[in-house]
Please model this.
Amino acid sequence: MTLPEEQLTEQRSAVAEAGVRVPSRGRVVAGRFFGSGWGRAGFALLAAVFLLAFAGPLVSPWSYTDKDFTAFMAPPSAAHWFGTLQTGADVFAVTMRGMQKSLVVGLLAALVSTALAAVIGAFAGYFLGWTDRMLTWVTDLLLVLPAFLILAVMSPMFAGGQWPLFVFMLALFLWMVTSKVVRGMTVSLKEREFILAARFMGVSPTRIIFRHVIPNLSSLLVVDATLNVSAAILTETSLSYFGFGIQPPDVSLGTLIADGAKTASYAPWTFWFAAGLLIVTVLAVNMIGDALRDALDPGSRRSR
Amino acid sequence: MRDEPVLTVSDLSVTFGMGRGAVHAVRGVSFDVRPGEVLGVVGESGSGKSVSALAVMGLLPPNARVSGSVRLLGTELLGASDKRLADFRGRALSMVFQDPLSALTPVYRVGDQIAEALMVHRRLTRAQAARRAVELLDLVGIPSPEQRAMAFPHEFSGGMRQRAVIAMAIANDPDVIICDEPTTALDVTIQAQVLDVLRKAQHETGAAIVLITHDLGIVAGFVDRVLVMYAGRPVEVGTVDEVYYRSRMPYTLGLLGSVPRLDRGEHGRLVPIVGNPPSPAALPEGCPFSPRCPLVVADCRSAEPPLLPVRHGGHLAACVRAGEIDGGDLPPERIYRAPERAAPRPVHAPREEREVVLGVDGLVKHYPLMRGAVFKRRIGTVRAVDGVTFDLREGETLGLVGESGCGKTTTLMEILRLVRPQAGTVAVLGRDISALASSQRMAIRRDMQVVFQDPMSSLDPRMTVYDILAEPLRTHGRRDLGPRIQELLSLVGLEPRHAARYPQDFSGGQRQRIGIARALALSPRLIVLDEPVSALDVSIQAGVINLLEELKERLGLSYLFVAHDLAVVRHIADRVAVMYLGRIAEVGAVGRVYDSPMHPYTQALLSAVPIPDPEKERARRRILLEGDLPSPASPPSGCRFRTRCPLFKAIGEAERLRCVDEEPRVRPMGGDHGAACHYAESLDVL
Model:
């Protein structure tokens, strides 16, 4: 008789303890993110795109440098799943290669630029004074520099596997406007009582910025990062279109779309696969951004 | 009764939205107002009092569905065309809003706005209307009305704006004036002025007034009949004396019992009403008050009780047990079982022997007043805090009171910031803050915590309660946070499972409890409270005040309690310091200062606070201060209060000279009571 009772009290105390064991912020956000249909769908879609881009070439008989001299401009067939280009290159292989580049460049550049915007804007807005003047000066300087020209001049340096530098340069010209918005919001957020409370508790300014300021701007930052993914991919595309950015023989979605656009009317496979995958990628990123914004904001109620 | 009612509202209901999500904001409000009568509508936030007023004025947004009947001078207003309504509004029915800044158009001159109100309804030439506008401004007590009529709203102070709005409201000699919390945004001395103007305006026009407020003190002194609202319905109606002295509805009793009283010195517990007002979207079954009611019986939950007459003719109450309850015999403390003090007050050593927890001496904070965008130049100095001296000893609560702009919040921030003040010294726990190493500063931060006014903005909305409470602990290097957080939550009357929720899942009172728990996390010795209860409803406020008192006794805390509500300070504080324009006007033990205030400003301040007791309130004599607080950028020479001081006007020419030339210091008035006045003398104002 006593045993079940003991078990019961044990269970009770376990329940009571479980009540206090609170999931960390990351776990809460992850739970809410995957709890929403959009979040799950977007994540699955992006994962599928990544899988396709990186695993696809492994199962394809062709590599992106191969040329099939028996088939120029051939429509999709068993041998060439997405058809071939005018040069005899396999469209599937080059599209996958281009996707790899564009995904990595787009996502990384967006994340780096949003992180830059958040940190620089928040520091400028929180400390004001000289920090603000210096950071605002840098921001304004980068705003007036002709980004495209500098990227074009620097393009020889991106050749030979220096794509991380390219990502960084892309990000460097994307963050300024957002950082100005972040700065303004930080200035008003700084007067809120919970920030004052943290200050009077002895929390260090850097920690206040990362623990209180930036999380409270997360809605803005997520939206910004989502938009930046498309912006980065498109900037890379337009750079590549003009022959800067990703250099041949390497390809990106941008170069593919640029080339394919010329032949799209009579050989649609040269254009539509690359364009379609770009659309799917951007769509997935937007869905994730939407779900993430809702997940980060405890005020938004999940629709049932 | 006297005459035919001018305004008859019957069975007024307002619903927002449709279907299951519909919000029934007002559910069957009926009242009459007769000429010259003042009807008070009281209730907590969300009780539907403002929505009712807007419905009467026909100012609700189109998504509101209004039913019932509103008859003004025999004409039905509900469903009337806009044109017809516009004819009534301003002429027969006018309104005074809470926020006088948004009630005036910022881009037009005040005089022109009043003239416009006149010209809409009467055939007047522009010159006639302008002349009448000046007369009206004069009537509401605005000095030099000719010049002031030419001013823009932003050049007016809050009190003057509200006067201008009242002038506009009475411009066309209306039959009914609806005042929606007309003094809530104003300081208490200005509130007294505005109420005085309102009374004068009513006398002048003979209009009926519907006064909507949450302040039971104002109702006691200003109103003839009162209507208590709860969850969108009137729950008790009657004359002020009937409702205050013979309440029949437990909610009214609870409301009256939960207000701290300016005139009651003893440190009894307040009587909070448990729980929170119901959300209008999810009302409980039966009587909406039944979940919070201490006298609840089975009948209460079955059906909502109708508003029925009780013994005296005009007195109605909506309670199944109204017959049994007679407020005269059953005081709220007995019905609500006032929480007992856990232990008798610990006997402290005499004040002089206790440690000084916070010593402030001659603290100064001046802000430069800058002009210009490119070439900034200093055009003046705002003397926000100009030599403030007080001390707070262990186990003591010091109330720092004053009107907005007196520098109390600046004083507080200077103390909390822990950096060297511009002049003067601040010593926290015996350490001078101007010479602190960073490790000492951290130690002081651990021992001195703060609770803020706004329970919403003082908690990070992106953090769970657990993280909020863990933050101070983590910052000061504590480990194993779970048990401590559980302990803190139970200390402030919350449940451990609340730790996983976010601040917006809580009501205002609960949020303030979380803020208090966070302040307690590091077991501090001194807590600085910045208006901790002023954003809360009366019934919730009482619970938080009780909690603060209990914690202080149990944990041996000292409080610096900054507030503008003098009644709350009397209840919670041991000593009180009254600030005026950056200086301490009077300081001393609460009983001494409240019962025999020496400084004319303290006297005026105390006499301006309404007491929720109709008989006392009618018998009191108000000391009305003239004008507004002078700008802290150019305070008057000598005594700062002399421009508004009633004593200054009464004394002779030779004595005045001293007030003009010499700034009075706080001089002892017996014991530790001190007042900064050359000619201070005691006066009973309660």
